[in-house]
Amino acid sequence: MLELKVDLNERSYPIFIGEHLLSDKGRLKQYVGQSRPVIVTNTTIAPLYLDSLLAIFDAQKPLHFVIPDGEQYKSLEWFEKISAFLLEHNCGRDTCLIALGGGVVGDLTGFVAACYQRGVPFIQIPTTLLSQVDSSVGGKTAVNHPLGKNMIGAFYQPKAVFIDTKTLSTLPAREFAAGMAEVIKYALIYDASFLDTLTEQHPQLSALDAESLQQVIYKCCAIKAEIVAKDETEAGLRALLNLGHTFGHAIEAQMGYGNWLHGEAVAAGMMIAANLAYQRGALSAADVEKIRRVIALYQLPTEAPSEMTAAQFLQHMRKDKKNKQGKIRFILPTQLGQCALVDDVSDETVVTLIGR
Ligand code: NAD
Ligand code: GLY
């Protein structure tokens, strides 16, 4: 088992990465404490992993709340339903919430934990690759609003993150690939040599080799932990984690959420950002080709949807949360393995880049 720490003074917490952590009774109990825990999960994950978790806390009479599966349930309506469930069961401030699932369950449960009785402890048990390398770490919690994704939320850190790589064995291949987009993102923002590792380790990672998965997940969590420790609330540095997301969010919104998975849209977004960096002289043609090859290797899209126009991109990107003083702000590579926030990309440049 591997272990690392997110260093946030009195709110620091460990990330455990291993196989069979879902049955690590002693460690889980240590972080949940003595009171009755409440596990939040969804209808897909519950039949797979809920029973083993319930068994661990048997003597504490754990409660569980199962939401339907889908991004649309990361909503104020389901926030309210979970809160009502906690109240109906007289859950107090010492109740520990356990998020068992992907980013949807994690973000929603985390936001309930942040708000219920002004904050109760919570633990993340992420079960998708995306949530294991990204959303379970760093304390961004949120629900969606009809007028925008992740628009209502809080920074609220978990007490611990338990990453059991065995859970990836039941994850659909397309979801695994979507998670790989976020893995590739870390290489592009922080460590060019990690891009080579991902190319070399492709056979092992695709076969879900435990050792390779744990090393790669560790690397991603270590990068994210370092960034979050320096800039918890995204005053600057943390925004780099949004590489590919400005174009990606526009693709997701235009194509309809769920038609393009978040990671697929981010992959295409990173390629567009790489092409833009090439135009600005920051990347060579060989760098761009190297990025394209890794993205394609993991069966991810390397181009924007053919039917999407520059005007549509611009319309969505004008609503991006990173924007300041009406300017769209992009994360762009400055060289392979490094990125920066820029706000001097003209609409004309975007039109030339997208080409329609
Ligand atoms: P998800 O939670 O919807 O999970 C994807 C699908 O996989 C779902 O159908 C789910 O039921 C299923 N699933 C999950 N684990 C499984 C397993 N082990 N076996 C079989 N099926 C499994 O999606 P996601 O990609 O994990 O997360 C996306 C969400 O995360 C979005 O809402 C996004 O906004 C959010 N997000 C948050 C952060 C953050 O920092 N908080 C970062 C990135 C993304
Ligand atoms: N996923 C981006 C962040 O946590 O900041």
Describe the structure.
This protein starts with a strand and ends with a helix. A hairpin with a 2-residue loop joins strand 10 and strand 11. It has 356 residues and is of the alpha/beta class. The strands form 3 sheets. Strands 1-2-9-6-5-3-4 form a 7-stranded mixed β-sheet, with helices on both faces. A two-stranded antiparallel sheet has the order 7-8. A two-stranded antiparallel sheet has the order 10-11. It folds into 2 domains: 169 residues, 3-Layer(aba) Sandwich (Rossmann fold), CATH 3.40.50.1970; 177 residues, Dehydroquinate synthase-like - alpha domain (Dehydroquinate synthase-like, alpha domain). The chain is built from 14 helices and 11 strands. It binds nicotinamide-adenine-dinucleotide and glycine. Glycine (GLY) binds next to loops.
> Under the CATH scheme, which architecture of the largest domain would be assigned?
Up-down Bundle
Tally of alpha and pi helices: 14
> What's the β-strand tally?
11
SSE pattern = EEHEHEHEHEHEEEHHHHHHHHEEH
Please state the average pLDDT score.
96
| Percent of residues in helices | 40-55%
Give the CA-CA distance, first to last residue. Answer: 50 Å
Bound molecules: nicotinamide-adenine-dinucleotide, glycine
- Which class of secondary structure composition applies to the elements? alpha/beta
- What's the number of structural domains? 2
Q: Radius of gyration in whole Å, from Cα?
A: 20 Å
The fold-level CATH name of the largest domain is: Dehydroquinate synthase-like, alpha domain
Largest sheet: 7 strands, mixed
CATH class of the largest domain: Mainly Alpha
Strand content: 15-25%
